[in-house]
Structure formats: structure tokens, C-alpha cells
Specification:
It is found in: Cytoplasm. This is Phosphoenolpyruvate-protein phosphotransferase. Its cofactor is Mg(2+). It is an enzyme of class 2 (transferase). There is one protein chain. By secondary structure, the chain is of the alpha/beta class. Helix content is about 45%, strand content about 15%. The protein is built from 14 helices and nine strands. An eight-stranded parallel barrel has the order 2-3-4-5-6-7-8-9, surrounded by seven helices. β8, α11 and β9 form a beta-alpha-beta unit. Bound molecules: phosphoenolpyruvate (PEP) and magnesium ion (MG). Phosphoenolpyruvate binds next to β3 and α9.
Length: about 325
């Protein structure tokens, strides 16, 4: 029965009472973008550019980078594509942009920190994104990973705006979620990376199977921080999305919509299941679930509470 509903679902996504939710795809290259474009994805919410260069020893030229990014932008003519600047280091080491032998790489020089140490790298990547955006018709948004301080947010925004592009940050470090109102003043949009936000809030390695009960985004502390970020986005009238794995869980997706998220980005294979789940619930039910989960005792109770209110599995 559920399978039939998923197969029959066609986008764009709306709740039962007609509230629109932008469902976007997470992609890593042109091929994945083409596959995503064949689904109901309304655009790309997370283009992980570092995955284009995992085996690359030397920084690619601006033209080479522009060619790579252009393939993704071209697959979504006229649509929103959020290009994330290199999130190198930790679980995604890019040879030309990662320090070797860090004792604790997930707490080390990763994401925007790599690019701040080598400012040319960041500028070159922005030039390449600009070049690719100008050569295609996609609506390119630029987003920076691992932002943890306000000066970083101000600096990247200034550099992205200097190229005439929209500037955003990922909210995946607790310091940024805690001071989200001040960050909202600095940027055009934010997107929550639940994989890292959960890892850093719970102090539990996202790759550890033993710690899976800690690294679930159903942890009430993670839910409360996400709700805070969504509320701030509503207050400042700036787009707030979720692009971590949490967005691909149909039940949690409904809760996130209830918190006030504008877009959810996920592996394109998950879009139909999330769209079909949203079609079964009203915005008011999503909001009731969002209010209830933040006071749950633990992750399991949060999930069960949401399930009881929404009836989605
Ligand atoms: C995240 O941290 O949730 C995220 C979307 O980024 P990545 O998984 O690439 O670190
Ligand atoms: Mg991340």
C-alpha cells in the first residue's frame, strides 16, 4: 500500500492542505545531477564539490573546476542549485586541500577552515562557480561548510557577493546554531547539515556503528537546535533548509516541515517517499509533532511521539 503511494506520487511536494515544501537533491557530479533531474527534485540543495576531487593531488585549474560544476548546473537549467564549497578533510580528504596526519581530523582543519588557511583555494573555487553559473542558466547559490564563527560568515559572504552570487552557510557546528540570529544577519540563507550537527552536538563520531544511538538526529537536543534555527529563519525571513540524512527520513521530514523548514535536500532516491509522506499530513499536524518532539525524554520517544501524531512510518 505504502509502496503504491510512493510510486504514484509526482511532485512538487505539498502537505495534504497544500503547504508547499521544496524537495531538492544531494548530488556529487554531473551524472548524479542528471539522474536527480529525472525525479521530482525541484533543484539541488547540496552539491558536494569535494567529492569531485577525492583523488586529485594538485588543485585543478579554474577552467577544469568550472567544467565540473557546469555539468551539475546544466542538468538543472533555470533551477536552484546550491553549490557547496570544498568540504575537505575528516571523512572526505581532498589531497590538495587537506592537512596530513591530523590527530583528530573531524575536529581539525576541515571545510571552510582549509580554505581560510589557503585563501587562494577559496577564491579560485568561487571564480570557477561564477564562471560555470554564467555559462549556464541555473540559479547558483553558494554555501560554505563548517562555518563556526561570525567573522568567517561575514568574510565568505563578502567574497561570494563580490561575484554576484547568493551566499549561505551550513549550520553543522553547535556554535553556529547557538548564535543563529547573529549569523542570519550575515548571510542570505542557511542549510542544516544534520550529519555533522548531530556528531558535534552529541560528541559522537558519525562513522561509529557503536554510537548509532547517539548519532541519530532524533536526539532531542539536536531537534531543539534545529527548531531554533528554523524559527530564526522565519524571524529574518531567510530560507532555511536541511541537507543532512535526516531530511530523507519521511517521518522526520514531516517534523522538520512543522518546525518551519522551507526546503529538504536528500539523495534523489528518497524524494518520492518523502513527498508521499508529506501528502498524507497537514501542516498543523506537522507543527504539533514539531512542538512535541523537543520535549521527548530520548530519541526513541521523540520518534514514537511523532509517529503517533502523524501516522507516517
Ligand atoms: C552534514 O554534515 O549533514 C552534511 C550534509 O554534510 P556532509 O554529510 O557532506 O558532511
Ligand atoms: Mg557536514
Amino acid at each position: 500500500k505504502r509502496r503504491e503511494k510512493i510510486d504514484a506520487w509526482t511532485g512538487p511536494a505539498h502537505t495534504k492542505d497544500g503547504h508547499h515544501v521544496q524537495l531538492l537533491a544531494n548530488v556529487q557530479d554531473g551524472e548524479a545531477a542528471k539522474r536527480a533531474a529525472a525525479t521530482a527534485a525541484e533543484g539541488v540543495g547540496l552539491f558536494r564539490t569535494e567529492l569531485c576531487f577525492l583523488g586529485t593531488q594538485q588543485e585543478p585549474s579554474i577552467d577544469t573546476q568550472a567544467e565540473e560544476y557546469g555539468q551539475v548546473l546544466a542538468a538543472f537549467e533555470g533551477k536552484k542549485v546550491v553549490v557547496r564549497t570544498l568540504d575537505s578533510g575528516s571523512d572526505k580528504p581532498v589531497p590538495f586541500a587537506t592537512l596530513k596526519d591530523e590527530p583528530n581530523p573531524s575536529l581539525g582543519v576541515r571545510g571552510i577552515r582549509t580554505q581560510m588557511i589557503n585563501p587562494y583555494l577559496f577564491g579560485h573555487q568561487l571564480d570557477a562557480i561564477k564562471q560555470a553559473a554564467d555559462a549556464t542558466n541555473a540559479d547558483a547559490w553558494v554555501m560554505c561548510p563548517m562555518i563556526s564563527t561570525l567573522p568567517e560568515a561575514r568574510e565568505v559572504t563578502q567574497q561570494i557577493h563580490a561575484r554576484g552570487l547568493r551566499a549561505g552557510i551550513m549550520v553543522e557546528v553547535p556554535s553556529t546554531a547557538l548564535l543563529i540570529d547573529q549569523f542570519m544577519e550575515e548571510v542570505d540563507f542557511v542549510s542544516i547539515g544534520t550529519n555533522d550537527l548531530t556528531q558535534y552536538v552529541m560528541a559522537a563520531d558519525r562513522l561509529s556503528a557503536e554510537l548509532a544511538s547517539f548519532t541519530t538526529p532524533w536526539q532531542p537536543a539536536v531537534l531543539a537546535l534545529m527548531a531554533k534555527v528554523a524559527k530564526s529563519g522565519e524571524h529574518f525571513d531567510k530560507p532555511v533548509g536541511v541537507c543532512g540524512e535526516a531530511a530523507a527520513d519521511p517521518l522526520l521530514a514531516c517534523v522538520l516541515v512543522g518546525m518551519g523548514m522551507n526546503s529538504l535536500s536528500m539523495a534523489s532516491g528518497a524524494i518520492a517517499a518523502v513527498g508521499a509522506a508529506l501528502a498524507e499530513v497537514t501542516l498543523e499536524e506537522c507543527q504539533a509533532a514539531a512542538r512535541a518532539v523537543v520535549s521527548a525524554f530520548d530519541a526513541e520517544q521523540a520518534r514514537n511521539t511523532a509517529k503517533a501524531i502523524l501516522g507516517v512510518s
